Formyl-CoA transferase (Glaciecola punicea ACAM 611), 412 residues
Amino acid sequence: MRESQSDMKVGPLAGLKVLELGNYVAAPFCCRLLADLGAEVIKVEPPRTGDPVRAWGEMLDEKSIWWSMHGRNKKCITLNLKHEKATALAKKLVAQSDIVVENYRPGQLESFGLGPSVIEKIRPSCILVRISGYGQSGPYKSKAAFGSIGEAVGGIRYLTGYPKDISDLSSVRTGVSIGDNIAGLYGAFGALSALTEVRTNPTDTSLRIVDVALTESILSMLDGCIPEYSVTGKIREPAGPALSTTAPSNAYRCLDGVDILIAANSSSLFINLCSVMEKESLASDPRFITNSKRVEYMSLLDTEIKQWTKQRTSNELINILEKSNIPCSKIFTVEDIVNDPQYKSRMAIQLVRDNFLGIDVLQTAPMPFFSDGKNGSVRWAGPTIGHHNKEVLSALLQEGDDLSMLEKQGVL
């Protein structure tokens, strides 16, 4: 693990200016990715309470530990966007920004006086990333939605469970805000795509709007579900720990009670697996001769594999399987991840000093890594509410205004 270097201000996005007008997860995650890679991100939060995520997850002295990473590398300021003086300051920030990111319900940004037409007038060639539940158009655009709703409507929630003949329990979440995070990734991807277009066509000074829907972000992750339905009429059903498109690829219980994942989901890997199981006859069995056949007879095949795995410990099996280059693994907990030599060797987890919490905190490193070594960095952990008000806003104030007065007026 490595300690963060707060003086590192370089990265592939150094010089890019981003204004974050979002809250909760999707827009802040999008902007954190940009900030990690060197962009200057100014995050606008409501006065006093700040972003609601400051009160989410495990707490230390009533401070969110998650915020340490969620808000990192951002300059946090407060603005009450319902106040006209705050809107005036926000417009000045827009004028300095290459990218503006928001995730309000459609129409709310306009109600603040910061809609697309206003932004385009203030900052030609600006990129506006708009992340919402259902997108900026369509009959559902005004519906309320969080990540879990996006996951449900996008189709992934239906698939995260067991077949009904095994369990009638409701499908489960992934355990993290996967819908918001994927939408945030698309937001960052869309922003940088639009930025490339802007720089390729500098004479076109129109506003570029990146319209990201939580539902569609999840929908894009559904592999072949949509084309398969269009051709066959079949609805892909939950398959538990298996994958309904390939076999064998499942979790198998071992002698020590630990489950391991085995992904021998190609014909050559399946032959190798049959060899290490000392059941070569399975490789030539007509029921398992092709992937489509193995999927058809998946339950029979999995029974054969389970009979083998339950006779050995998980460590024994992993050693056997890895010697034959068969993809396999235990299911990692965060403790396993923190202590894993692969993650350590790539410095994928780093120790960050969090002055807000007053402790050192482990965080995932900025991703991705670059071959030239000009990677992103954690320059500082998530700051306090309004920590950068003076630094960011002082130069933007009108004559006669000062921060303390604006705070008393409810602007900051």
